[in-house]
Amino acid sequence: MSNGRGSKRKHNKSAKNATASASTQTAPVTIRRASTAPTEEAAAPSSALHAQAKASASAPAPKSCSPAFATPEQARARFALERIQALRDEWQEKLKEQKEFNSYASAMPFMIRANGLGQTAAFYRRKGTDHVYFRLYALLGAWLSQPQRPFEGKPDLLEAITQCDQETYLVAQIEALLFLDWVKKLASAFLAREEDQTATTAATEAQP
Q: Is the pTM higher than 0.85?
């Protein structure tokens, strides 16, 4: 009887060891299958990213050249260019006015640095509305009264200067110099200049 019980115990022990060994061998297979199966949580972000990329590809490109995306320098250049081109069209047969505008546009920044914005504005304003000086006065006033500019909503330059505080005045003076730099460059590019006449005369005289 004891031998039978002993053999039975050995048989049970061997069976347990065999079961444990079998489970150990099959466990990695189960883990590998579980790791390769995609889950809903993993698939969801991928689908969302795909949809987002598709929407971005089909969306229209932003209008980088529109006023909403313009830098301050671009805004100054655009405003000056529009006004200079309008003067060119108006003065097609008036080369004298074009040359004067070029000359006065070059002189105005130097006057502002030497005498200040207020005195320069008064000098350009006193010439009268029919004079080329006034065109520069009005152009500068129009720019400084634009939205987000120092004299916003006040197109009369002298009136705005006499009603502002010192800080606003200094900001306006700096902005005036930055804007007039574009006016000077574009006027030189689009309007007649004194040196143009000099060059034409020299070329004519040089002909045999």
A: no
User: Are 189 and 102 in the same domain?
Assistant: yes
Structural domain that includes position 138:
70-193
Q: Tell me: the pLDDT tens digits for 158-169?
A: 999 999 999 999
Q: Report in angstroms the alpha-carbon separations of 172 from 35, 54, 112, 180.
A: 68, 47, 11, 12
Neighbours of 60 (CB within 10 A): 5
Tokens of 49: 């990213």
| DSSP-H helix ranges across the chain | 2-36, 40-58, 72-90, 95-115, 117-125, 132-144, 157-163, 166-190, 194-206
HEC profile of 146-177: CCCCCCCCCCCHHHHHHHCCHHHHHHHHHHHH
pLDDT at 41 over 80: no
Structure tokens at 198: 């000099």
**Tens of pLDDT, residues 89-137:** 998 888 898 999 999 999 999 999 999 999 999 999 988 888 999 999 9
The dihedrals phi and psi of 125, each to the nearest 5 degrees, come to -80, -35
> Do 122 and 27 belong to one domain?
no
Instruction: Give residue 148's region: left, alpha or beta (phi > 0; psi -120 to 50).
Output: left
